[in-house]
Amino acid sequence: MGTRFNPPPNWPQPPEGWVPPEGWQPEPSWGPLPLGWELWVEDRPPRGLLKRIFGGPPAQAPPVARVQTTVADHPRPLPPVPSTVSRPAAGRADGVNPNAEGAAAREVTFRTASRRAGRGRGSAATGKVVFDLWGQRGWAGRDVVGESNYLDHIKRVIGTAHQPDGAEHLHHALLVAEPDNPHDRHAVAVQIAGQAVGYLPREDAPAYSRVLQRLADQGFVAQVQARIWARDFDDYEVDRRGNYVQSTRFGAGVRVDLGEAHLLVPGNTPPTGAHEFVPVGGAIQVTGEEAHAEILAPYCGPAGEQWAYATLHEMTQQLARSTRDVVEVRLDSQRIGQLTPKMSADLFPAIRHINELGATAACRALVKGNRAAAQVTLYVQRSHELEDAWFDDVRRRHGGSSV
User: Which fold does the domain 136-259 belong to in CATH?
Assistant: First the structure.
């Protein structure tokens, strides 16, 4: 079983079967590789009707065709979103020229995009920029191990909120890869309020540590929601005279809200022009994806599902005897479908508010499938679900005045 060249969706797609010659380098204008993207993947043989599933487990590239990359080729990529927008921005509040060349300018652009997506907070504990991992589902379902070694730390985290009869405590937790850990180079520590409270299970850690280490190399630290359950338990000890003495001991367990490793970060890069993210909300199915299978295939990722940043655009659709306004969905400026008139109407107020300020609306999208078929689901709040403060904040960020 061999390997094949796997260009990311924001690069020009080569002819079928093309192999980079020795010494080949990508054009700088193509942009950086998305975080964690594998340029060489396993080439699986056909199988049944849905043949040639796109991607596969990462595979070593042939030495003669390996593309050499440097840190400069990855200017702070990360949870991505489309790398370009469909129309020129009317200026940026941060003063960054989206067309500026060089890693420094692209780094500032990405950091600004991260802030707008709710990722720009700094961590005093690590000195890095906090990035809220994608794929969280609203409940802490993954166990943390080794908490018994950090009960004093957990006590400090809970503080006066501790209830002897037991209580749940919700916190933000940082996930920190520890490649220099003497016991396990794939170890992933869980930290809350600057205190170590445990580790991800050893069997899960390798898949996560790879992604977390890439984030750390780019100056980011991953954050998730965590749940601590703590209480005091009755305990008995034997004193020097052989008598049982009742006492209490503190006990606690920790769980984190953590998706699958391949769903922690998006597969493309943020929009480079002025843009605004509509907050994450319920699922909205995109329609018409079947007409864009070739475009969507690379976005499915090696695992057959992958997050991406999408942009939302108002368009007028021509019907047989009339027209109607709907939301067109794009990935990296490429049309990949649209929303139904009803779903479009739910999003129009937010999209128009963003457009009036010279920016493009963006949101999270989950792409599933392969070369044969793919579907796209948006996770975005409807306009009526947004708080008034959000509209005011968007206006302030893009240079408008609040009314």
Answer: Alpha-Beta Plaits (3.30.70)
